[in-house]
């Protein structure tokens, strides 16, 4: 029966479906916990910094290990590493659901991020080697649409589960899905790997980058607890600077580096990755704090909070695949730059909201956010992947997705520091807690808007326009033929 359904002509689309199934699960876990955070906080008696670590621990490990995941996929096989990641992710999801304390939950989320880091670069590299250039933009558009949809629908799914069942099932639901995804991968995905030259993991690069990113996130998240000038926080910042500087030096001189800095000589690849980093910096903290705002300030239930994101979600479902297709014809520059400007407008509107907003007050910002992210994400991804050769698809996709996840983890930490400082200042001025929270949130959202606007400028200066659409792919094909 399966052989009759999966013919040689349509197998690539079945492959896309199998990859998208696993991708949806791992991307959903970026945001599904956001709406359930107040429920988790009450159940496990979590502090606000521990709530941040529940989200950041996943995003940070996801980003820090993704480059290694891409390398391992190229070395041992993309399907094999995809399945290994699925197994790790599924098992750690079970541990998250069973967690009875902050320490266990955060630790399980860190391992969950490791599983996602193994899976995610494999998804995009499998697509890149499966689809011909003329269909790759469409396939990547669907890939980006699934990714963005999972990010956007997470709050609604999380709200329904937290309010109607229990927050633990946010993680338990991954177990049967993971089992189905593993079986689908073996049935529908062909194995592929990079055979161009010797491959090996870059352990020194992995250790220095992970240490640097963890130290930086720790300093930003815990600074308001211990004081910005405390020895602990200053030491964490120092460790971050030294470790990240060591990472760059190692990657410049390693024979087989984890991060191939030579890829950034391509202006389009460098620009697309910069935009993706800024999207993460701007938006992950917004999802986190808007979810808290609508429940703790506006008084929404978990389901109402999740439903408030539906306009954003529906626009992504409709527009993201279309943006991917359109980027095949006109290039990525106008779509990404325009999308980032629209996203900036969304953040500016969010930053003007008060303590008594209705759903209709939220709606314009949600609509602009959906349009902006749909327009920016798929074309950014397509631009980056068109700028690398097919045998570098694993590491190319790993770099791109690592930028988003690292940006996201740092974005939550940075926005958290700004919001906390604003709350403290406003509380000292005598404002009640809801007003102080909103004042702090406004500072964070204004910062996020500035970051998104910087992304629009970078896109306009670095990505390919309509007159150059397809050229990077042509160069890659020429290089492969040679």
Task: Describe the protein's architecture and organization.
By secondary structure, the chain is an all-alpha fold. The chain has two domains: 2-191 and 258-472, Growth Hormone, Chain: A (Up-down Bundle); 202-255. The chain is 82% helix and 0% strand. It has helices spanning 2-5, 11-44, 48-76, 78-98, 102-130, 133-164, 169-172, 174-188, 203-226, 231-253, 267-296, 302-307, 310-330, 333-350, 359-386, 393-428, 433-462, 471-481. 59% of the residues are buried.
Write the topology of this structure.
Layout: H1 2-5, H2 11-44, H3 48-76, H4 78-98, H5 102-130, H6 133-164, H7 169-172, H8 174-188, H9 203-226, H10 231-253, H11 267-296, H12 302-307, H13 310-330, H14 333-350, H15 359-386, H16 393-428, H17 433-462, H18 471-481
Helix pairs in contact: 2-3, 2-5, 2-6, 2-8, 2-11, 3-4, 3-5, 3-9, 3-16, 4-5, 4-8, 5-16, 6-13, 6-15, 9-10, 9-16, 11-15, 11-16, 11-17, 13-15, 14-15, 14-17, 16-17
Keywords:
482 residues, mainly alpha, Growth Hormone, Chain: A, 2 domains, 18 helices, globular, disordered C terminus
Number of domains: 2
Task: Tell me the number of strands.
Answer: 0
In the CATH hierarchy, the third-tier topology of the largest domain is known as Growth Hormone, Chain: A
Helix/strand order, N-terminal first: HHHHHHHHHHHHHHHHHH
Unreliable residue runs: 467-482
Taking Cα atoms only, what radius of gyration do you get, to the nearest Å? 21 Å
Helicity range: over 70%
What is the CATH architecture descriptor of the largest domain? Answer: Up-down Bundle
- SS field, number of helical segments: 18
Mean pLDDT: 84
Percent range for β-strand residues: under 5%
Backbone structural class: mainly alpha
Main β-sheet: number of strands, strand sense, barrel status?
none
CATH homologous group name of the largest domain: MFS general substrate transporter like domains
